[in-house]
């Protein structure tokens, strides 16, 4: 099967790491829990995208180490994004409960992945397409089928919380237009391969999140003038 190196994850990773660094700086300055949650989420975003890049067959190819790191970070980051949104819009007691849910499911996923390292599939036995993003999805379902339900729950709940929370921020205060970028960014994971493909949607989402973040800083600076 002929692959062409897919460099989309490279751009996703760079943007995510820069974003995480800016969020960490903001957290150090202001000590807000939502900033810490988003710092962790964007760090995981960058790591998972880097693993995707390295899994290009002409780089390091699919292997159990890269795939395990990718799977854990790519799933957990959605939960931390949702937790960050909750810390921003609701009381901390509710947010603490949701964070506990994210941590528990992430731990279950971590343990489940570790227990399955010996069961990494023979790639020749799978119906791979030659598309990096789609083949990652195929391997995910085959390799970690025993913990896939936890992935679905964590990603679905985390994504929904982020989507609803960011939309609520805008509805509550229409001047906070930057929240719409988080809303639109949160929609992309639910679209699967539409419109830009699995990897393209990841890149589009982090770009929208980053634009929303920059606009939120400009908004806050304007409010403080």
Write the element-wise H/E pattern from the N-terminal end onward. HHHHHHHH
- Please report the distance between the alpha carbons of the first and last residues: 59 Å
| Unreliable stretches | none
Shape designation = globular
DSSP summary: helix tally: 8
Q: Which whole number gives the mean pLDDT?
A: 90
Helix content: over 70%
Count of all domains: 1
Find the count of extended strands (DSSP E, 2+ residues): 0
Largest sheet: none
Estimate what percentage of residues fall within beta strands. under 5%
Radius of gyration, whole Å: 18 Å
Category by helix and strand content: mainly alpha
Structure description:
With 225 residues, the protein is mainly alpha-helical. It has one domain. It has helices at 8-30, 33-54, 64-89, 92-115, 132-143, 148-172, 179-187, 197-223. Helix 2 packs antiparallel against helix 3 (64-89) and helix 3 (64-89) runs antiparallel to helix 4. The chain crosses the membrane at residues 6-24, 36-55, 67-90, 97-115, 147-170, 177-197, 203-220. Keywords: Membrane, Transmembrane, Transmembrane helix. This is Histidine kinase N-terminal 7TM region domain-containing protein.
């Amino acid at each position: 099967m002929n692959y062409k190196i897919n460099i989309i994850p490279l751009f996703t990773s760079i943007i995510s790491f820069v974003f995480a660094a800016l969020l960490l700086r903001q957290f150090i300055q202001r000590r807000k829990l939502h900033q810490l949650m988003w710092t962790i989420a964007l760090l995981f975003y960058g790591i998972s995208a880097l693993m995707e890049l390295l899994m290009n067959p002409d780089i390091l190819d699919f292997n159990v180490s890269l795939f395990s790191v990718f799977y854990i970070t790519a799933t957990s980051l959605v939960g931390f994004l949702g937790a960050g949104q909750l810390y921003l819009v609701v009381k901390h007691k509710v947010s603490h409960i949701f964070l506990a849910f994210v941590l528990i499911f992430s731990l279950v996923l971590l343990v489940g992945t570790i227990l399955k390292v010996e069961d990494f599939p023979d790639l020749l036995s799978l119906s791979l397409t030659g598309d990096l993003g789609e083949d990652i999805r195929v391997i995910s379902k085959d390799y970690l089928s025993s913990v896939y339900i936890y992935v679905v729950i964590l990603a679905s709940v985390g994504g929904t919380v982020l989507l609803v929370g960011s939309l609520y921020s805008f509805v509550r205060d229409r001047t906070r237009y930057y929240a719409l970028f988080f809303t639109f960014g949160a929609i992309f994971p639910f679209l699967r391969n539409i419109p830009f493909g699995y990897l393209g949607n990841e890149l589009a989402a982090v770009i929208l999140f980053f634009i929303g973040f920059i606009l939120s800083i400009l908004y806050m600076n304007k409010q403080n003038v």
